[in-house]
Amino acid sequence: MNYNVEVDFAPIYECVSSLTAFMNKQNHHALEAGKLWVREVQDLFAPAKIQEMREIVKATDDFSLAPFIWTCPGERTVHGFLDWLENLSTGQLYDIAAGLKVSVPSNLPELRTRTVEALREWDATYFQHIDPAIIEGLAQEAKNRRTHLTGTDHREVYEQATEGMRLYPNSQLKKVILIPQYHARPFVTSAIFDEVIFTYYSCDILPPEPGRPAHGLMRLTRALSDETRLYILRLLAGKQLTFSEIVREVKLSKSTIHYHLIALRAAGLVIVHVNQKSTAYTLRMEALDKLSGQIATYIED
């Protein structure tokens, strides 16, 4: 049974994604916005306010807004969506979750209230002041990606957008929603439910400075410049390995292997095979095949 892919975007998606990227301290070392961005944002908020928002994000960690954003019938700007969400009755909250067969905690109304509070603070102090070209670019990316869905295998569109995630159909999965994101680059993250999966994929919306290499080329060359990552690629040539098997073969800590796989995935060098029961990795030759051409184009341009 195949699933259908849709592409969706609204400013509220990026607002949520940017807040999550800022609050996930364990990922800051791999975040393409870098620690400079983190420090710049920190300077906008009082330390007590950051701690308060961090506690809210932690408390609502299992509460995904994606199903509610997707089903919102009205304006999906940050203010438009949050006003709509805040005015939903408890019954309406649970009805939306039930319609998508999304399991929700018993304190859903409380989580909704705390999430809205944190997002309003984040939007007022940071998000509403970002470069408008980011939102415009993400909206255009979504529009362009939708054209790829016509007459094309939807699984192929998903793999191309995510730079190598191969999502296999199952008896329950009906729909996958692709959502472009900027702040959380290079991460690809998913909110997974029985019948629908929401996948945020990374997009290089703002171009590099004149004369500088493209972001994708930089990811590729950085990924290939490390001995351990090259060894992982060699292991993955011609066979699938799970994360645990890679850890066992390379003989490094799980956190170190996780970091290396982030770099390899961001460069599009591995295929991530995702099904109901497991995740495995193989080499993605497509990215390597394009390397020489990308370097030649950059140097000779």
Tag the structure with descriptive keywords.
301 residues; alpha/beta; Arc Repressor Mutant, subunit A; 4-stranded mixed sheet; 8 strands
Give an account of the 3D structure.
- The structure is a single chain.
- The chain has 14 helices and 8 strands.
- It has 301 residues and is of the alpha/beta class.
- The strands form 2 sheets. It has a 4-stranded mixed sheet, sandwiched between helices.
- It folds into 2 domains: 4-202, no CATH class; 215-300, Winged helix-like DNA-binding domain superfamily/Winged helix DNA-binding domain (Arc Repressor Mutant, subunit A, Orthogonal Bundle), CATH 1.10.10.
- The structural class is alpha/beta
Largest sheet at a glance?
A: 4 strands, mixed
Mean pLDDT value: 92
Rg result: 20 Å
Low-confidence stretches: none
DSSP, total strands = 8
- Please state how the strands of the largest beta sheet are arranged side by side: 1-3-5-4
Which percent range fits the helix content? 40-55%
Note the overall shape: globular
Counting structural domains, the number is 2
Strand fraction equals 5-15%
SSE pattern, N- to C-terminal:
EHHHHHHHHHEEEEHHEHHEEH
Spatial separation of the terminal alpha carbons: 46 Å
Oligomer: single chain
